[in-house]
UniProtKB/TrEMBL annotation:
Superkingdom classification of source: Eukaryota
One of the Pfam families matching this protein, by short name: DUF7781
InterPro entries: DUF7781
Protein name per the record: DUF7781 domain-containing protein
Limits of the DUF7781 domain: 12-183
Lineage: Eukaryota, Viridiplantae, Streptophyta, Embryophyta, Tracheophyta
Length: 188
């Protein structure tokens, strides 16, 4: 392509956007609700950066104000108790966890701040979207969109171009697909 008015090369449309629909995480979750506790078995498959498989046993209360969940990973022999995400602001959450690794014979705790917005010098939206097919069968999709808004600038008498436009960028991906099967003794 020919250079633009500001001496930079035009970029192709393929450089301005990309959409990746191949998820890097596939999860199959089996859940059973027993006396106010949800017992779950998660089978997790990761295909990027390396193929990996992980199984988890998850226990958490069904109460709307649940404050914790218990996770046991038999392959790594890890046990963790994790708090629910505690909202600090509208877009910022804090999560705290305590864990023990039987392989390393070590106990420790972690914390993390999370948000659905933000990124490394680029704007990012991360979200999960759920789709209930019928009672007891749900799909959840984890997706991400990194974007740079279009920008129009110009100048007169400064040696800069009279009109300059940056088209912006969008890079979106479907990162995670979960199939969730829930068995409940209660009526729907």
């Amino acid at each position: 392509m020919e250079p633009g008015s500001n001496g930079e090369e035009h970029t192709s449309w393929e450089d301005l956007y990309s959409i990746n629909l191949m998820p890097s995480e596939l999860l199959l979750k089996f859940r059973k609700e027993v006396q106010g506790i949800r017992v779950g078995v998660n089978l997790e498959f990761y295909n990027a950066p390396a193929n990996e498989y992980q199984a988890k046993l998850v226990l958490k209360p069904l109460a709307p104000d649940r404050r914790w969940k218990f996770i046991y990973e038999p392959i790594h022999q890890d046990v963790r108790v994790i708090s629910k995400k505690i909202p600090i602001t509208k877009f910022l959450n804090l999560q705290v966890g305590l864990g023990h690794s039987f392989q390393m014979n070590a106990t420790g705790w972690k914390w993390k701040l999370t948000t659905c917005l933000g990124g490394d010098g680029i704007s990012r939206i991360r979200n999960k979207t759920s789709l209930g097919l019928f009672p007891g069968m749900d799909f959840r999709f984890g997706w991400r969109a990194d974007y740079v808004f279009p920008e129009i600038t110009g100048a007169l008498g400064t040696g800069e171009p009279l009109f300059n436009m940056n088209s912006g960028q969008l890079h979106a991906s479907l990162d995670r697909v979960e199939a969730i099967l829930t068995h409940s003794d209660g009526a729907y």
